[in-house]
Fold this protein.
Amino acid sequence: MARPLRGARLRAVALTLPLVAFVAVTFIAPLGSMLVRSFYEPHVADALPRTLAALRAWDGSSVPSEDTFRILATELRWLDEQRKLGAVATRVNRLESGMRSTIMDTADALSSAEPGSWREAMIARDPIWEEPSAWLAVRRAGERYTMRHYLNALDLDRDPSGNIVAQSPDRRIYLPLLLRTLGVSLAITIICLILGYPVAYLIANASPARSNLLLLLVLVPFWTSLLVRTTSWIVLLQNQGVVNDLLVAAGVIGEDGRLALVYNMVGTLVAMTQVLLPFMILPLYAVMRSISPTYLRAASSLGATFRQGFVRVYWPQSLPGVAAGSLLVFILSIGYYITPALVGGRTGQLISNMIAYHMQESLNWGLAAALGVILLVTVMSLYLVYNRLVGIERMRLS
Amino acid sequence: MMGNRGEWTVPPRRQKNIFSALLVTTLGVWSAGCGTEGITVVSWGGSYEAAARKAIFEPFTAETGIEVHVESFNGGLAQIRAQVETGNVHWDVVDLEFGDAVKGCDEGLLEVIDIDELPPAPDGTPARDDYFEGTYTDCGGGLVYYSTAYAYNRESFPGERPSTLEDFFDLAKFPGRRGMRRVPLVNLEMALMADGVPTEEVYAVLDTPDGVDRAFRKLDTIKSEVVWWEAGAQPPQMLADQEVAMSTAYNGRIFNAQILEGQPFTIVWDGQVLDYGQTAIVAGTPRLEAARQFLIFASRVDSIAAIGRYIAYSPTRRSGMSLIGTHAETGVDMRPHMPSAPENLTRALRNDPVWWTNHAEELTERFSAWLAR
């Protein structure tokens, strides 16, 4: 008896292997490499080993010795010949704007020179080499393991003596954006719940024919491409769009009082709510369908009004669906990216749009990774709190 | 899912059929991948790509027999870096913004090509003297100048019409929404020019923290009315819909809307910001020889000037200037529509790509923070 069972179990495990492999390759490996990237930056450390060794003995406030200048110049020259200097210069530039062309120009100017004093030659080329800030930038860019990206992602910075200080107010961006993302996600979850609950109730309690039709009305948009739905909202909501035209035609607003409904937070809220609504309705519907109508009838036969019956009998039984739907919508909206990018305009951007920017445009993958890790940790801790409050075992999808 | 296990058993013979079907499909896809001769050139989509196709890609295939597969992108080095770092290069030649070309060339993402290998001007002037100053890198030569200037829809202004860059920033005189590209590039420069900074001092002022503050303060004055665009095709659309009263835009896209679609748009050249692109070869491409042939073909004065017969972008080579003629389809004289036309250059700024490679990251961060407030 035991043996065939074990065989079946092995077969079952074997059947999950492709999925396990798939998850490992497409999810766990990238996640791991992202984690590593957020604190490990070997480029500059590998490119300028001798300069960094020489800078270890430097006091951080005077002009470094002639020796240090010579070592840096030699390493810059070698990197320039190998065409590896650009990547190094870009990284130093992130710590001190302007260092990119300083480094490129210096390497260029020294390419065939054999000056008596490297120090004078380099300072003559660019006086910034006389400033400790330039050397500090090189030294800090050379840290192999760094908290820099995390500091940056939390709107913090280091002052020249290495203390952690708040970023200047006009450059603070990531924390406000993270808070905004959480706020928007919460708002969308609540709106979805308010809109979705009655719909799910209606579908669950309608006659089979009607409930199928209603369900279809929920599913057809769900099956429609995300991009199509988002761009349709642009058509509907824009200044000269359908909604504004109707309002003007109905005399609710004047021709110059057209409402700004898209390319702002309103656009993000409306479009994301519509996109995510099925993720609320479907779990709610699945749970509600399993609530027998006899309970409500029993409540009313015992003298409860509909309100009392709903609050004390129906709502508690539908809670697992509410919990599942809310969690689904909240987590999906935290990572949302395409919809805010298209309809969010200036004020409707979320943290994922910044991550995408650093992945695709600034190529600061370390910062993108740190932002991603912070987002992941935030979501996981919220999930733990949620689990504590609601209890994941109470959550049901059907 | 609790059904009996027999449901999932596939009869052996059918298993074999499925296997061979899979095999055939896989082989088919694989051989289709291998069978493509020619090179992949990456451009910008829309009317500009259509122009490059007719001006360069098709004549190149006709001359060499090497097929050109065109892909589109939105600029940047991220995809190129990914391909070079993973050693899986499937793009061969890319049409880059000049700043990205400088950066990519410095970082070894692009193949080095000696400027003397590029074809000389028809009169024999070597390429290094024929290119306008600063329009080539170690990885290839520039292609065309394009301009970001602002344009308006004449129907939005039945009375007095804007004519200077200052008017773009003057909400009292010309009320209405403004379209601007959602990047600090060009916007900061225009803000300073409109605030009275002479063109030759713009980058010197921007180089100081006070100058950056000043630019942002100027942008603050119109911030509430700005609609931000990202793709080059958006401004003509927004102007046509009168979603905005005026918008900064790539001059070629406005030109095409004017000439091919008959839109009532006017470009205000005052305070235009000139920029240029460069074609370059992705480092490590397995089709290096064909890619080099293409790059050299595309650097010919005829090729560069031919783009200007389809879209209002002017050559980066001196000898190309005399080749500016008429639009290939409508016969319109291209000269007055070019960013390089003398009457359009009364107040024009040339973008400093090297300055931007130094400051793009810092300013984009600040710009994003400013936008979000």
